[in-house]
Structures are given as C-alpha cells and as structure tokens.
C-alpha cells in the first residue's frame, strides 16, 4: 500500500496534473481519477446537443418501428421537418422501457404468469427508466418543450442505511449503519490522524508554518475534532455518541459511499423525475402527435426494394395482418426483438445486430400499508446501500411524503439473481421481503401488494436496456442499411439512459434528413 506521507510529496517544482492523477489513481482507483478529471472538465461530455435541422425542399415517407422514447423522438423531429411519418407500436401504450406501473396495468410473462397490478389509486412505480441526471439536457429540454412537470429525485440522504451481511466484512456485518454515521466517523478518524501528523511535523509536504496552521484549522472543522487535542468525538449531528472503529469501517467497505465527487446520478447535483411517473414523457409525445401513432401493431417482417420499405404487421387485437410501405424505415425496436423478426439486412449489418446483447435487469415495486421508513426511521428518499442482500438498488420513493401508503423499489438487479427468473412471482416477492426484512423488520407486517417486472420475460421487450456494442459494431449500426436505419438506444453509447435513446434517434434523423435533402 502506498505511504500517504510520500503520496503527495513533491519536488520544489509544481506537481503537474498528470502526476497528480497518477497518484490519485494509486489511492482511489479509476473512480477518483475520473471524478477529478470531470471537475477539471477534461473528460469531455458524451451527451450531444440536439442538432439544428432545417427544412429542405424535399421530404419523404417514413415508417418508424417502436413507440419507445427513441421512436417517439424520431417521429417528433421528422414531423417538424415535414416528413410523412407513421409509428407502429405493438403494445397498447407508448413508452417501451418508460413504463410506469399503476392499478389495472397487466402483462403476461413469456411462458409464464399473468399479473394485474393491484396498487391503490395514485400509487405507482417506474418499472424501467426512473431518474434523469441534471446533465441529460436532451431529456430535460423535451420535458420543457412538451410541458412535462418535473420534481427532484432524492438519490441519497445521510439518513440512508448501509448494510453488509458477509461476516468476513468485519464487526459491522449484520448491522444497519447510517450513512451519516459512516461519513462522520471516517472523516473524523482520518482528519484526526492528519491533524496530529501535521502538528508533529510528520507529513513530508512543503508547508509553511502559516499553511500548516490553516490546514490544521480546516481538519479540525471538517472532522469535528477537538481544537486542543485533535481528538475526534462524534458530534450530535451524527445521531449518537457511538463511534465506529476506523478499521471496522474500512473492512466493511462502506467508505465507497463517502467520496468528494460522484458521476452520473450521485452527489449533490440534482436528479429529476417526472411528476406522476417516467411514462409521462412518452405520453406527452403521444398526445402531441397521436394521429401518427398506431398501437397494437406487432411487426412481423421488414423487406426493402430500391425504392421503398415494406413492413408486414399483425393487429394484436384482431389477429389480422397487413402491410405498411414507405420510402424509408427507422427501426427503434429493442435489439433483442429485432433478432426475432424476419428482416432483410446486409451480411455486415446482420453480424453487427447479432453481436448485440442486453441487460437482464428486473424490478419489483412493493406497496406498503404505511410509510414506516419515514415514520420509524426518518428516511425520505434515497437508497438502501447493500451488496450482500441480493436486492440490487433498493430505493425509497421521492414523492408522496408523509402520506399513508407508498411504493418501495424493493428489487432492481439482474433477473437471474438467486435464480429468481426460474421461480413463480410469489416466491420472488417472498425473497425480497425476507432479504429486505433484515434491514427493515417492518417489511412483512406492512406489506400490501407487489408487482414484478422481469424484462427478459416481457413481450415486445425480451430484455432490459441494451449493452453498449463494441466500437466496430456500433459504427456499423450507425449506418443506413439500404433504406433501413436502426435508431434504438441499444445502438449507442448510453443505452441504459433516456438520453441514450434520444441521441440514437437524433443520429438516425440526422442521417436520413441529410440523405433526403441531398436527393
């Protein structure tokens, strides 16, 4: 392990950014390096601004397959440019992975059970996409454009619990520990060590006496140390006078939640959610262009000639088949679904499509009779941070505070966790109640009803978000294949985020519009 006394010692010349990043990497790994580079604006921003398209003297007819966010964005932007667009969606509502499950919603798993949501009126949970980072301006701009009101999503609070069950993780295993306790004791213990070392002149750094005095003052304030003996004594804000041993905290691994910077959805930067659920975004698109969207239309095959694309489909209500034709087609179906369709592709594109994969993520929302996490534990939003419970991201609702009931996101992890994908839904619910009950013993008594969405088992999805394809495959997927364009989020670099779906749609619209405008 690198000695902290030599980590930041320097020659008389100033340390370069490269040298500092190298040393930070030795201490904190890639996450600390990337966080620092982000603070210096060296990482760049993968998020793309919306292209400024201009109408041309030429337009064309376009069939868009899939009424998820990418398909809706493509239809919206092409419609503004004067194109004749039609969006075909197999489900009875738009949104795809933007599915907000409410009372009366239902689905039948592929080869499995049928569920009907029994939540109380007004209760819901986001079975797919569920939060919007503040930097995802494409999503936020469309919310503003379409009048979708937003509210803050509470990603983390100091009241949230951390839990580690593995006994090899030390004396804190099996105990629920508040994030505020971890922060206070880690900062306190480490600043205590540094303050004493600085006071004794044991740090090999070129500090003037004035700098040393200022540094000690900072450490005393940051770590709640006694200004006389530099000893950390837990402050009242911590919640109790108990102090966790530094070794125990480090062994438990809880320090991973105490960082100066977080990427994506962490830290103090705001995270948003639409009021009423994430599906409010695709529903707003649908309201704005309802005449272009055809629901209940399952795509069977895609054929193309030198002058047009022909899409055969089945009406899921009547079973009748039909055909739609247009000059071009943008396919925004999930890549897992595209693989099951009879579609004409070039050998290169067929190989790229075959190389794609997807996440097997699953979610479960649990309605509770009362909001015990608020009433009993003082938790308002955020997550239960756990690694050993097999629940993935367990989250508390960021809406409806201090009301009677609420929906917990009790499970957000791989669908095959504990072989749950092979078990009936009642056993999946039992698993979640048992595991979460180790932290919240009120779970079972307060449980009301649940709804489970295992995305690999959901028709017309056959998986959660796509995995980012390899660079070569991604370049191929970004090209037109004759008159066919692939515009789903699974073709881009951020398939797990709404911004990724939007940017994939932009890319297809931009490529097609340039082609049509050029004649």
Short note summarizing the structure:
The chain is of the alpha/beta class and 519 residues long. It contains 15 helices and 23 strands.
Q: Which class of the largest domain in CATH terms?
A: Alpha Beta
Work out the radius of gyration.
26 Å
Shape: globular
Please give the largest β-sheet: 5 strands, parallel
Mean pLDDT: 89
Secondary structure tally, helices: 15
Overall helicity: 25-40%
- N-to-C CA distance: 63 Å
CATH topology of the largest domain: FAD/NAD(P)-binding domain
Question: What's the CATH H-level homologous superfamily of the largest domain?
Answer: FAD/NAD(P)-binding domain
Strands side by side in the biggest sheet: 12-2-1-16-23
Helix and strand content put the structural class at: alpha/beta
Beta-strand content bin? 15-25%
Number of strands: 23
Summed up, the domain count is 4
Which CATH architecture of the largest domain? 3-Layer(bba) Sandwich
Low-confidence stretches: 1-15, 23-45
